[in-house]
Specification:
single chain; 156 residues; alpha+beta; Sulfate adenylyltransferase; 5-stranded mixed β-sheet; binds zinc ion
Length: 156
């Protein structure tokens, strides 16, 4: 699985308030692609490890000029208190591009890693934010399977 860096918005990805990211690349990405959101993917010293946050899945992909961003999408980017002008300035500084640069607008959903089967799945039933934050999540099929075998629904 590919890694995707969320260095500036680690907190927003951890608390799952960010639902879209703008990138200059990722042309190969397709709707349905699952990637691992990480704190930092590049410039990790030898022997260092990549800090994974959560798997995500792209649900909508489009290209538009950077400075077409709306106030609503600034919020979706994880900056509820900032303006579109602020966002464009920040992006231009970090990526050294023009304000009108076409950017890849990548909308995604959060997936949960099941502690039993290890699959990355979306599920309506998230068993408490404390479990999700700890990556301790069991998917519905695994939970039903455990109950059918007379076990506790959750292994933790
Ligand atoms: Zn499972």
């Amino acid at each position: 699985m590919r890694n995707m860096s969320f260095t500036l918005t680690t907190r927003q990805v951890r608390n799952r308030t960010k639902t879209v990211t703008r990138r200059l690349g990722w042309k190969f990405a397709r709707v349905g692609l699952v990637v691992m959101a990480c704190v930092k993917c590049q410039g990790i010293p030898k022997g260092g490890h990549i800090e994974e946050i959560t798997p995500i899945r792209f649900t909508d992909l489009r290209w538009e000029p950077l400075n077409s961003i709306t106030q609503e999408d600034v919020v979706n980017e994880g900056f509820p208190l900032q303006s579109p002008e602020w966002f464009v300035d920040m992006f231009v500084r970090h990526n050294r591009c023009a304000p009108s640069e076409p950017v890849h607008v990548m909308t995604f959903e959060y997936l949960n890693t099941c502690a039993v089967c290890g699959e990355h799945v979306t599920d309506e039933f998230v068993f408490g934010p404390e479990h999700t934050a700890l990556h301790q999540y069991v998917c519905s099929p695994c939970m039903i399977d455990r109950m059918n075998r007379g076990e506790e629904p959750l292994p933790f």
